[in-house]
Amino acid sequence: MDYKSSDNLQDLQYFGEYGGVNPSISDSSTYTFLSAKTMFDTFEGNTVGCYLYSRHSSPSNLYLGEALAAMEGTETANVTASGMGAISAVIMQLCDAGDHIVSSRTIYGGTYAFMKNFLKSSTSKRTLSTLRILKLSKMPLLPIPK
After folding, report:
1. pLDDT value for 126
2. Which of 97, 96, 71, 92 is nearest to 80 (CA)?
3. By percentage, how much of the chain surpasses pLDDT 70?
4. Measured torsion, CA atoms of residues 106, 108, 111, 113, in degrees rounded to the nearest 10
5. Which one, of 14, 108, 4, lies nearest residue 65 by Cα?
6. Nearest by Cα to 128 from 146, 102, 89, 106
7. The pairing of beta strand 125-129 with beta strand 100-104
């Protein structure tokens, strides 16, 4: 049988906190804690269902991530507050200190600035070249470029 993302999405069942058929939309940017221990545990990443700040995560992002994962047939999906949040998270996850990033200079300006200025202060190395140079030259690739 062929994979049908719509079937997986239909199988997700959430009920809103007030008994609605859909989960409630959370428009809060900050969250409260009933105890200092719960807040500490949440900061340490040791709680489930507790949120600190909406740019980190929120109930709405959790529901959307789970729906995207169901549609794509993956274990999980992560939702970020911006495209640059997604780009920097992927680069930081995939690249270790000493790795080389081969990139075009004509990439999105925020990505270029992130790699040029932020990664510069880390121990990651990067090679920013134009696609034309990569195609026309026999530029030696360093071990394990990304």
Report:
1. 52
2. 92
3. 71
4. 70
5. 14
6. 102
7. parallel
pLDDT computed for residue 45 by the predictor:
82
pLDDT digits (tens, 9 = 90+) for 52-79: 887 778 888 888 888 889 888 889 898 8
DSSP assignment of 61-123, as one string? HHHHHHHHHHHHT-S-----SSHHHHHHHHHHHH--TT-EEEEETTS-HHHHHIIIIIHHHSS
Hey, what are 7's tokens?
Answer: 């079937």
Element (H, E) at 128: strand 125-129
Would you put residue 33 in left (φ > 0), alpha (ψ -120 to 50) or beta? beta
What's the whole-model pTM score?
0.58
Task: Give the residue carrying structure tokens 């992130």.
Answer: 114
* DSSP-derived secondary structure for 30-45: B---SSHHHHHHHHTT
Contact 118/93 with Cβ under 8 angstroms? no
At 141 the pLDDT is 56
Report the distance separating Cα 87 and Cα 78, nearest Å: 12
Residue that has been written with the tokens 């200025």 in this structure: 117
Structure tokens given for 50: 């507790």
